[in-house]
Fold CoA ester lyase.
Amino acid sequence: MRSPKDFFRPLAVGAPAPVREVPFRPSRMIHFFDPGNEKMAAKVPDIAPTVDVLLGNLEDAVAADRKEAARSGLVKVAKATDLGDTQLWTRINSLDSPWALDDLLTLVTEIGDKLDVIMVPKVEGAEDIHYVDRLLAQLEAKAGIQRPILVHAILETATGVANVEEIAGASPRMQGISLGPADLAASRRMKTTRVGGGHPGYLVREDPHGADGSAPRATFQQDLWHYTLARMVDACAAHGILPYYGPFGDIKDTTACEDQFRNAFLLGCVGAWSLHPVQIAIAKRVFSPSPADVAWARKVIDAMGDGTGAVMIDGKMQDDATYKQCQVVAQLADALAARDPELRDAYAAAEKE
Ligand SMILES: CC(=O)SCCNC(=O)CCNC(=O)[C@H](O)C(C)(C)COP(=O)(O)OP(=O)(O)OC[C@H]1O[C@@H](n2cnc3c(N)ncnc32)[C@H](O)[C@@H]1OP(=O)(O)O
Ligand SMILES: CC(=O)C(=O)O
Ligand SMILES: [Mg+2]
C-alpha cells in the first residue's frame, strides 16, 4: 500500500496528477458496442448523442480472431467521431490474456486523450489495479496526456468480491465498479446460466396454511445478486467512487431488465450497461429520478432550511437524515438536467405543480 502522503502523486515522471475526487458525470447507461463489427461501428454517430457513455468492447463477446480488428476499430471510431459530451470508455481484455498489454499500449498512445475510462475485467484484488495504474501513468507520460484516464473494475470473480473494498480504494484512478453477473456466476459455481436477473428456482415459500395445511402456498422469487450488489455499493460509497449494475442478457425481456435496473438504482447504483439499443431507453428512464420524486425532494429541502430540526410535510416526519436523502435526489437531478433538456423541462414542470 502506498502511504497516504503519496497517494495523489503521479506514478511516472511526466504523468498527469491523479484526480482528488471522481468527477460525477451522468453515466446512466454504458452502451457496449463491438468496434470491429463494421455494422455496429457505423451506428456510433447516431447512437452517441442518445447515451451517456459509449464503450468500445474488446473483451468477451469479441471472438479471439477479431481482437485486433476490435482494437483498431476503436482507434478509428475515436479519431473519426466527435462524441460531444458523451464519454468514451473501453473494456480491455483481462490482464492474464494475450491481448491486454497491446490493448493498453495502443489505446493510450493512439487515443488516450479521448478515453475517459478504461474498464478492467476480472479484477481480483488491489494488485491488478496497481499494475494498470503504473502502466497507465507511464503511457500517459509517453503520450503527453494531460488528464488522467480513470479505471473501472468489473466485479466478476469470487476473489474480487472478497476483496471489493481494497479494489475500490486501490488508486485515485478508480472511477467505479460494475457487477459482472455472468463470470461471477461461473466463478462461484452458481447454477444459473443467465446473464444477470433472477431465477425461478431461487425463492422462498409461504408457510403451510389452511385447515389441514394443504392450501396452495405462494412462492416469492428472490434476487440472486442482492448481496453482491449491496456489498459493492457500500465499497464504492465508502471510497467515493460510483457503482453500476452490469449487463442484463435477456434482451427481449425488457420488463425484467427494467426491474433489475430499478433495484440497482434504488440500492445506490448510478447506471447499468446497455448491450442492445433497446436497453438504452430503459436505463435512461430508470436511472433518472422521476419528476415527482425530484419535486418532493426539493420541497423537503426548501422546508428544512439549514437542514437541522424536524418538520412535518404531508404527514411525514422530515429531519437531517431525510434532508440528506433528498439532497442525493436533487443533486442527481441537477446533474442530469444539465445534460438532458427534456428532463430539465420535466423537472421544472413537476416543481410548479
Ligand atoms: C457478460 C458480458 O460480458 S456482457 C458484455 C459483452 N456483450 C456485448 O457487448 C454484446 C453487445 N451486443 C451485441 O453484440 C448484440 O446486441 C447481440 C449479439 C446481443 C444481438 O445482436 P443482433 O442479433 O444483431 O440484434 P438485433 O437483430 O436485434 O439488432 C438490431 C439492430 O441493432 C444493432 N445493434 C445490436 N446491438 C447493438 C449495439 N450494442 N450497439 C449498436 N448497434 C447494435 C444491430 O446491428 C442491428 O442493426 P440493423 O438493424 O442495422 O441490422
Ligand atoms: C459483465 C461481465 O463481464 C459478466 O457478467 O461476466
Ligand atoms: Mg465477464
